Every structure is written in structure tokens, then in C-alpha cells.
Amino acid sequence: MKVYKFGGASVKDAEGVRNISQLLINECAEPLVIVISAMGKTTNMLEKVVNDYYSNNSPNLDKVKLYHYSILEELFDKSHSIFDDVNNLFVEIEWAIEDTPTSTYAYEYDQIVSVGELLSTKIVSAFLDQEGFANKWIDARDIIRTDNTYRNARVDWQLTKYNIAKYISDSEVFLTQGFIGCTTENFTTTLGREGSDFTAAILGFALDAEEVTIWKDVDGMLNADPRYFDDAKLLNQLSFAEAIELAYFGAKVIHPKTIQPLKEKNISLRIKSFLNPKEEGTVIFDNAEMEPFLPSFIIKENQILISISANDLSFIVEDHLSYIFSLLAKYGLGINMMQNSAVSFSVCVDNDSQKILDLISELKEGFKVQYNDQLTLCTIRHYDQSAIDKVVDEKNILLEQKSRQTIQFVFSN
Ligand code: ADP
Ligand code: ASP
Ligand code: MG
């Protein structure tokens, strides 16, 4: 059994859907489970719908509808039943946003945003059928069982494994949604942005897959994001341990949660290009020697550096730190970098505006708080002097930290 995951970029338009259909027909890997994300930037568009809905700002689905219908019109005859399926999914959201919200933002978010994956998988499944590539559409909410931490749901592995064994056999090709799951009370949940990679890993784990392949618009895992570094090089192979570090520091190509389940069962993870499927891509497996061995660069934008000191300039002591950490945890803010001195504690986090406003106002009740925003965090793994020079180059560095393997800089743009 293999698991293939196709992300938003692979199905961003009709040509993308045709391309993956051809790819599947050529590869003919069977048995197979295919995991698909929402098309293109659908999740961002649906987030806007939720935000408007939640702030009573006339939520409007027109853009999402237009986008999907234009893809449908290119792929199917007008009489195809897929038009009804897609229409029904839109009607569900329209009903949901007719009334004022009754529950938390996170709950409403999951009920609405999850429709992106339902739409894309319905469309791709119908197109594959039309092209003669038989496949069975599965609702991920029947298999991925989670708790009710909406927007960042935690998987109930035992129930999920049980469901996967019940619904998925090794005699067919199955196609399902990434990113979404369901509570035992039948409420839809999501696993966190970019969570479709994680769904592929969950399936790979439960099915003891021979390999999980993540198809991307790049040749594989590179030593830098090609959007920032035009000389980024392909890494042919690396270990799970190295991949987890790169993903943790923010290499956007794989979701950090993807690695652990695969490592536990020693299932290799391949990252390949859906544009060049004949190339080998990157393979990640236990204890792999990194090849080629190169410094890796990870850029995270939209960072905020917050410096916290006691109002009376007294020392920052342990109980202050534990209180600050508890607030970061309360607002779900992961620490990207931190440093402390006698009188202050500095922490660099993603500038998620709503969470940051709440955090800072709560911190100000007990501390003096200063911050700089619009910053960039650069992490270099396996750095050397020339790698550092390449990044630092006349930048205004606000914070720097170094260990044997990794150096990090926070700088203003
Ligand atoms: P998906 O279509 O699965 O959602 P993403 O857009 O999330 O794909 O991820 C692919 C993108 O990740 C690439 O286009 C590339 O710009 C970016 N990226 C960031 N870091 C790396 C890296 N180290 N190697 C390859 N791609 C990277
Ligand atoms: N569609 C979701 C997102 O954009 C999940 C994913 O793409 O992995 O975050
Ligand atoms: Mg993505």
C-alpha cells in the first residue's frame, strides 16, 4: 500500500487536475490511498468568509464559487452530476452563515473551512472516474477521529486506526481529504493549517504503508525555499531527525507533525514534483546520511520580538518566566526563539495579530512590554561562515543565537 498526497498547488486549476489524473494513470501504483487538500488558495478564501461571518461583515461565498465552477466547466460536461454535488456543499455553507454565530470562532471555522477539502476531493474523484481511473471517495470524517480542539484537533489514534482498517482495504484506490477530521459527537474538526501532509502520515501509519509520497511544485526538499534563494539545491536524502528539525524551524515544504508517525513505523517519506514525476525527488528515512551535505536556510517572515521586563526593573525570576510561558501556551503561540537577561526576557513568535494583541494586553497588566514587529527570522542548519555572510549582509540584526548545528537571526526588513 502506498499513500500519495497532493497539495493545493497541484490542483489549483483544471490543468492541474488533468496533470494529476495523467500522473496517476501513468504511475498506476496500486493499492493506493490518495489524500488531497483544498484547491489553490481556497482555504485562505474560506478563512475570509469565516472572519466576515464572525464579525457580522456580510460573508460572501461568490469568489469561492466562481473559482470552483470555472474549474468544473473546463473539466466536465454541463450535465455531469458533479455540479449538483458541488452545489450541495455550497448550500451547506450558505445555511451555516445565514444565522449569527452561536459557538466559538474555532468551531465555526472548522465547519466552514473544511468544505474546501470536500469540494476538491469530490471534483478530483469525479474527474478520475471520467478518465477511467476507478477510485473510491471516502469522507475523512468517517476515519480521522479527533478531540474537540477546533482548528488544531488532536488525533485519537486508537479509534482512527480502527476506522481506517474498517473503511480501507488493499484491493482498491481510495481518495480522501487531508486536513479534516471529526469528533466522536460528529462535529467536523481541522488539524491545523497545512495539515494535509499530516493526514497522509496518519494513513501511512495506520496502513503500514510501504511509502508516503508528497507531491509538490518543487523537485523535492531543497536546502532553502526557492522563493527566497534562487540557487536552492535539491536534497536527495535526509534522515527523519534532520527533516523534523527543518520542518520545526519553518521549512514550509512539510508539516512538522508529518514525520513522527512515519519514523515510528520506519515508513519512508518521499517528496516529489508533480511536474517532473519521473525524477526521484527527496527520500527521507531513518538514519539516512544527508546527501548532499549542505547548509539549509529557513526564512520565516512576519515575526514579532517581544521584550518583557518587570515594572520596577527587578530581576526576571522563575515564577515570572513560568507565568509568561503559561500565557504563550494559553494563546497557542509557539516560541521561535527566546533569550533572557537579568532584567528582561525576549521572545520571537509569529505575529498572529489577534493572539498577539490579547497576549500583550494581558502581559501589560504585570510587566513592562516592548516589541518590534515586521521582522524576519532566518535559521541556518549546518552553518558555515559563507552561509552566514550570505544571509547577514548589512541587515539590522536584533537577536542572534547559535548552537553547534544551528544559528538563528532575527532582523528587521
Ligand atoms: P502544497 O501545494 O502541498 O500546499 P506548499 O505550497 O505548502 O505546497 O509547499 C510547497 C512550497 O514550499 C514550495 O513551492 C516552496 O516555495 C516552499 N518551500 C519552503 N521551503 C522549502 C524547502 N526547503 N524545499 C522546498 N520547498 C520549500
Ligand atoms: N487546505 C489546508 C490549508 O491550506 C490544508 C493543507 O493544504 O494542507 O492549510
Ligand atoms: Mg500548503
Describe this protein's structure:
The protein is an alpha/beta fold and 413 residues long. The protein folds into two domains: 2-209, Acetylglutamate kinase-like (Carbamate kinase), CATH 3.40.1160.10; 296-412, VC0802-like, CATH 3.30.2130. Helices cover 37% and strands 23% of the residues. It contains 13 helices and 16 strands. The strands form three sheets. Strands 3-4-2-1-7-9-10-8 form an eight-stranded mixed beta sheet, sandwiched between helices. Strands 12-13-11-14-16-15 form a six-stranded antiparallel beta sheet, with helices on one face. A two-stranded antiparallel sheet has the order 5-6. Helix 2 packs antiparallel against helix 5 (105-113) and helix 3 runs antiparallel to helix 4 (82-96). The longest helix has 16 residues, at 115-130. The termini are far apart. The mean pLDDT is 95. The structure holds adenosine-5'-diphosphate, aspartic acid and magnesium ion. The site of aspartic acid has 12 residues, from loops.
Q: Can you count the beta strands?
A: 16
Strand content: 15-25%
Classify the fold: give the CATH topology of the largest domain. Answer: Carbamate kinase
CATH superfamily of the largest domain: Acetylglutamate kinase-like
Counting DSSP H or I runs of 4 or more residues, the number of helices is: 13
Biggest β-sheet strands, sense, barrel: 8 strands, mixed
Name the ligand types: adenosine-5'-diphosphate, aspartic acid, magnesium ion
Any idea what the CATH architecture of the largest domain is? 3-Layer(aba) Sandwich
Q: Find the structural class using helix and strand composition.
A: alpha/beta
Give the overall form.
globular
